[in-house]
Amino acid sequence: GAVVSQHPSWVICKSGTSVKIECRSLDFQATTMFWYRQFPKQSLMLMATSNEGSKATYEQGVEKDKFLINHASLTLSTLTVTSAHPEDSSFYICSARDEITGRSEQYFGPGTRLTVT
Amino acid sequence: KQEVTQIPAALSVPEGENLVLNCSFTDSAIYNLQWFRQDPGKGLTSLLLIQSSQREQTSGRLNASLDKSSGRSTLYIAASQPGDSATYLCALCSGGGADGLTFGKGTHLIIQP
Q1: pLDDT by residue (tens digit) across B28-39?
Q2: Which of residues 30-69 of A touch B (CB under 8 A)?
């Protein structure tokens, strides 16, 4: 149980284009999902908290107009990187919080590697 | 602001050894602490989760401890195997469990056959 999927697993795009990444909780509902970014040889950094039915909450230094987050259902959150630039190349990982057990354990997707050329 | 430090940054040991990975944090007001494993270019695998009220958790050859008062957690790996080679990440959740996780930079572990 508690499986989170991400699509696509990797994407290469040209500078200036937009890329959408999907995060799905497959066997549980999640009102809260999180988006993280990991640069090479660095740890994961929280970008934003995605809340079902409301606006996302962004961490300091993360541009909300550049990283659009939509959490339209209890099993799906999307991250759209708008007008991507090479410095946006990174490994993007989402997580979904399991709220049923009360442990607030986060389950992570397999990640999406974005390369902007 | 919570800061998480993991020591050592890298570790290489022969197969069969028992080893300890360390994690320290600056703010003891945590909700829970998780240890993850990350293989190169891959996502995260959750290993153990310790609630703030707990002192330790065990799963197979892994044992994680938590001492909130000193701001420390350890991950003990018994009888290490080459398949244990990976980066191990410590992450904390605060804010009553509603916040995202704050991660350490990880310990890159190599088990020599």
Answers
A1: 899 899 999 999
A2: 32, 34, 36, 42-46, 49, 59
